[in-house]
Amino acid sequence: MTSPEEPGTEKAPEKPNWLRREIEVEVGPVAHGGHCVARHEGRVVFVRHALPGETVVVRINGDNGGSFCRGDAIEIRRPSPDRVEPPCPFSGPGKCGGCDWQHASWDAQRELKAAVVAEQLFRLAHLDVDVVVEELPGGPLHWRTRMRMAVNHNSKAGFRAFHSHTVIPVDHCVIAAPESLDEVVNRSWSVGSELSITRDAGGQVHITESGRPQPRKGRGMVPGRPMRRRGDGTAVELAAGRTWRLHADGFWQVHPAAAETLAAVVRDWADCRPGELAWDLYGGVGLFASVLAEQVGEEGTVVVVESSNQAVHDGRHNLSDQRQVQWLAGKVENVLTSAYVSEQQPDVVVLDPPRKGAGKVVVTEIAQRGPARVVYVACDPAALARDVATFAEQGYRLAELRAFDAFPMTHHVECVALLLPLR
What we know:
CATH superfamily of the largest domain: Vaccinia Virus protein VP39
CATH class of the largest domain: Alpha Beta
Helix content: 10-25%
Number of strands: 24
Structural class: alpha+beta
Radius of gyration: 24 Å
Strand content: 25-35%
Number of domains: 3
Number of helices: 8
CATH topology of the largest domain: Rossmann fold
Distance between the termini: 70 Å
């Protein structure tokens, strides 16, 4: 029998569990995701509601026993000069999880986002880029035109707490577009239902109440069926010199100035010539396709690839006057590896992928066609950096980058990158 002192018999050290522990830390740099990084007793602590350089007391609310844990700053012992009083009473530890930076000045918010974009490009793409996050018109409040809410056990609408199913009921939201939540917060709804709210460019508010999504074994969540609607279900938007009509729950930029701003950058950087072939991947209802169609003219072609059948339907209707626009419904990775476009060699590619990014398959398919310009619109800096690194492996360099504060008070930032071939 071996003794406890013999090699191979030592017990593995127990994993630390700091849950609900309160610790004092000096806050380090900002990290992607709306928090900052601190260190304590050899572990990384991701801290929300803090700012770089502050000394704070953190209550740990997430710990799996690994090299890091998560917590909220519940007491600020040495504040940053960039700290301000949050404008919303529902913002703070344990409250609404929608806003990340209400405790930071608007200038500081953009500096934090710029630091995140630069850090992701440096860490994932090995690029040293000076990033400036540009503000959009209208200020940091009253901008959000599309929102999702949940209904609690008292039939009141609210927002979920951070990383939680708990619904925090509210009577207003400081980032919501004017009048968009008036009816929502002043009436009762079905317990457990979900609400989708859209305020379009004409001021019409559309509300869809759906049943709670239900789990399906091995296949994610089954969306709840629509129960009630307010408004006619068709949102009217204005951008790129056109009036757009689309399903009220369909994708459109949530900041009222974002669609026009992004379309202008795409127009400038795509720079298509008459008669050229352009791809618009993850094309939605065709915002960028409309810009490309104007540039390539009637002798050119714009191929839009979009997975949402509703968006394709709306896009065809909105761009029915642009016969040079062709629509392909399906996942981008499937369409690009199919016979539909196997022989195409686009001159210009515009892509606006979801938060996870385009991925290696899509980036490789684009690069192998050899377009002269690739314009990449990104809502996640980490995904953008990963895809930029993949483009570099395929012979493309990051030539230009612009970043926009299309989501004030949150950690989200919208970027547009221009990629050019090395040759």
